[in-house]
Amino acid sequence: MQANSDELHIQTQAQLGELYEALDSGTFKQVKRMLNGLSPVEIAHLLESSPPPSRRALWRLVDKEKEGDILQELPDDIQAQFLRRMDAQEVAHITEGMDADDVADILQQLPDRVIKEVLKAMGEQDRQRIETVLSYDEDTAGGMMDTDTITVRPRFTLDVVLRYLRRHDELPASTDNLIVVNRKDEFLGLLPLSKLLTTDPSITVREVMSTDAEPIDAQLPDTEVANLFERNDWVSAPVVDEDGKVVGRITIDDVVDVIREDADHSLMSMAGLDEEEDTFAPVMRTTPRRAIWLGVNLITAITASAVISIFQDTIDKVVALAVLMPIVASMGGVAGSQTLTVVIRGMALSQVGRHNLGYLLSKEATVGLINGFIWALVMGGIAAYWFQDINLAIIIAAAMVINLLTAATMGALLPVLLRAMKIDPALAGSVALTTVTDVVGFFAFLGLATYFYA
Amino acid sequence: MQANSDELHIQTQAQLGELYEALDSGTFKQVKRMLNGLSPVEIAHLLESSPPPSRRALWRLVDKEKEGDILQELPDDIQAQFLRRMDAQEVAHITEGMDADDVADILQQLPDRVIKEVLKAMGEQDRQRIETVLSYDEDTAGGMMDTDTITVRPRFTLDVVLRYLRRHDELPASTDNLIVVNRKDEFLGLLPLSKLLTTDPSITVREVMSTDAEPIDAQLPDTEVANLFERNDWVSAPVVDEDGKVVGRITIDDVVDVIREDADHSLMSMAGLDEEEDTFAPVMRTTPRRAIWLGVNLITAITASAVISIFQDTIDKVVALAVLMPIVASMGGVAGSQTLTVVIRGMALSQVGRHNLGYLLSKEATVGLINGFIWALVMGGIAAYWFQDINLAIIIAAAMVINLLTAATMGALLPVLLRAMKIDPALAGSVALTTVTDVVGFFAFLGLATYFYA
Questions:
Q1: Domains in chain A and their CATH numbers?
Q2: A341 contacts in chain B (CB < 8 Å)
Q3: Can you tell me where the transmembrane regions are (chains A, B) (predicted)?
């Protein structure tokens, strides 16, 4: 991502510079004008990129009628911060006219009691739309759908459909298909706008509608929705409830958000972080979250130390062992984390499973073994020269081969085992692997040394 | 991502199971029928999920006319493997009728000499389209665009446009706008299909076209194109050359690929891997790539060992130091990598820069310091109890505070420094940080011990 958006970066920082300067010098009128001259997406990005104090100051200067549009572009964490200062009336007001799925996302940051109040403060029609979306889990197709669908009946001619559309002021965003339903609102097929525009208008909907795409079940997890969109290059897709009734429509822009979060999940989890983590979260919120992860790692580190302590006498005899000992563990850690990362990504892409795990395992083990030998030779040579001790060279070389082979094997096996135990491999994989490579690394190196020198 | 696509995972593994079984039992006819009953995207996913030998066997059974569609769904690495076995005629044949950007992607896997031959073997019209795309860098807007645009003139009435469209058999995929150009093909604005369908047909294009969206410059990097699409919820966007002439059109499906690769880049780079890495690449291809990363890490590890060797005499006196020494380095490594990951993601999202780095740095340093104190207390207590030595407890506690503070500070600073030096922080950040946390960890712990015990 390093090349990502140099231009956007420069632009963001220039805008922040101007805004902070104006804030500092107290020229709020100017800040207000500058800020509200930007699009909601741009304002959201500036808020995300600001430390909490400036964030609050900027938010107060945002035009009331823009608040809703900005709010829906912000990550959950920051949404919650701003919502906490609003009452139900205000929330109902700023979410007016927004897509149902976006309103539902915002409401889900609030306590149940407040959600009820906000719904009560809404118009009847809005309330119904949003209650439909809220009735599904946030991470399902139902939770990410809009309710603004345009449906047509199969017996109409295209000419009738064209005249019907002309009665609208505009079509819902990202409409590439009209949804064909029967009188019970059950899904029958899709009428692509491109078909509507290129076909003889006297033909009926039934004759041109496409029936090969299945509608999405409202209960389908959002990651599978994203998979379907990616595999089929969809722009929008209809959502049906358990009775096959069309209840809404998912559009690609919401799918892109899922793809982005999904891809961020592995990266952030491998460091024990949440993918929604606010980069500029205040110290008091960040510290406890990080502390837990450090605590887990301390147990790993103490386990490794306990292994070393078994061999205190040997180290006492040959102090060079203490000098070289971290190298074996470190190389194992790196080799293991490479395999782990490849396998975790392979699992995220649904590539790795029962029928190819065998190949993957033997491949990674072979790579680990070959690289073990290569770097064992190099490191053995260095150790022999450094400490003028051929035994030490043989010991570190052998320990390195053992640890790199173990690391590669466990790097491939651990995520699969963790998944079978319903534990997130991205979260638990790296700690588990470090424990293995440290313990095996120290044990192999110091154990061999004890055998040689005892 | 762990919850990702359980269903897809199960389906993939079931299909692989059936296919491999049929391959093993030599019933190729059955494999052929099963395989070719799937969509190109599904076949591509099965090929990606297969070890190279099964991959080649399956590929040979794929219907000739499907090869092109499957090929364009595969990552670069695997595309190249299959293309190596084809001659120019075959490549020209299977890419017939494909989008220009997809053909260009495929051709870029071939040597220049072969590209020329393939282009020569194509029809005149195809050749021109593809040469246009090939004239731009793969990672720019020009390299990811299609050339199949529908353009209209501003003076036409919508009725004329509607009749013009009806002369087409279908519209290009993901067409949500027609592009309005003057007689020199220069971009003037967009005519959304939704406007076309909801507006009185006697009105002219000029009156309803939208002119607020800027077209994309063909030289714009693909990551910035993705940013524009994400920020504006676009489905497609026109691309213009340096003279403002419309040369093509980018669609959301190609943008989603960029977003996915972009997000994968940080994850894979932090383990020294390429985001295009083939999960099942053969040993001989994987080993050298991994070896280089291990070599870089060996230098880091030896540097840390060199620091330890300075304090050999102290370790010789107090062997408990050798036992506890890895804990300080390890905790620093974990604290640092948490900060590093947050900052690298923040940079990828264009959030972090000159105007908020100060806040971020002081925040991360404070978190590091507080967590340093918390775990120093815990570890100090453990060390005092374990070795019955209060000095050792004080030494490890102090070293831990120093190392966690350093780790957090450097975790925030390093990626910014690396970027300023035009080095990819995702790739170099973790190695650079480990070097710092190891060196400082060992130096602080053993240095303090030398001071106390000497």
A1: 6-144 (1.25.60.10), 151-251 (3.10.580.10), 283-453 (1.10.357.20)
A2: 267-268, 270-271, 273
A3: 291-312, 318-344, 365-387, 393-418, 430-453
